[in-house]
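Now for a typical sample entry:
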Amino acid sequence: MSKPLTGVKVVEMATFVAGPVSARLLADLGAEVIKVERPEGDAWRATGVSYLPNRFSKDENPVFDIYNAGKKHVALNLKTPEGMEAFHRLLAEADVFITNTRPRALKRLGLSYEDIKEKYPSLVYGILLGYGEEGPESEKPAFDTSAFWAKSGFLRDLSLTREDYAPVQPPYSMGDTITGYLLMGQICAALYRRKDTGLGDYVKASLYHNSIFTMGTMAIITQPPFGRIFPGERPDWGAPHGDYQCADGEWIYISGYTNALYPVLYRMLGREDLGEDPRFCSAAKRWENRQAYYEQIRDAFLTQPSEHWLRLAEELDLPMIRMGHFSSLASDEQAWANGYLENVQFPSGNTDVMPRSPIEMESVGTLHTVPAPGIGADSAEILKNLGYTDAQIKEMQASGAIAIG
């Protein structure tokens, strides 16, 4: 079966998550992806092991593999002439280049878009940025925790106001992954355009820009003309939507913002009177009396265990769900039923549950995560394909221009 990107060659010179996840998804779509690492390897290898150092190792590193499966791995020292020469040979054959190296460092290497666009006019050049290319923070070191979560207001403003207030802690890698999706989509669009023009493109995705767009509703309603203020108290989130604790200590979540939801919910709670209460008869009134309204809904849910409410919600087709934990995902029946999870065996002999690639296309078929190889595992093969002889490869290894795993 020919996948959508079969025949496309991608060179990835990226570390950590945002760039690598974009390249991994392109590989899932059929592209040949060559990941270029430094001889010491992508720092995310060590980061992945650090999450569970008593279990994870170079032979079992699922936190690295989830973003680097399906790639070939070559280790080049770009500070040597020989390493840079080999890298340019890769670019000469590539359709796509992906990097998250900071612009100033790319310029020093002679690998900025302006440096190479004339040499490789058909190359789609994709770059992951932290805070953008311009402005006082453009060269700041950026991670998703800082450029996506912290700067956008999410961490400060989504924790509820209370006596023991503290900012929300960011999830690992999520902002990177979302931004990697964005870059991947733009790269596919650039490849589609190239079919007609023969020309490459300069494709950018910034963690900070993506966070502003992703938090767009919040960025709009908190502007001075509109006046929503965060952090806020729980009633400020607009009951009946949101989280509620039940009699068994479990939590449920109600979504949905249509007027049709209210009478059905009131009937489920046995509180039809709420629909006739003049304090709650309109959106404006519910907002004006939001503390009292929230307390009515909250207290009703506390009268029965979560299973009671979830059963009734299913019968009434209400958008209500039990609130889960990260730890419950690996055993979730719904996830397994749809193939969103898979068992992956590692060289260590252990088998771990991992999220399956989110790519779902008939032309792609079922995808399986294969653990990524070690640093430079494919160096010799890749260099031979570029025309290097065995003797040249040994010489480059001896000089430190390449590493062979």
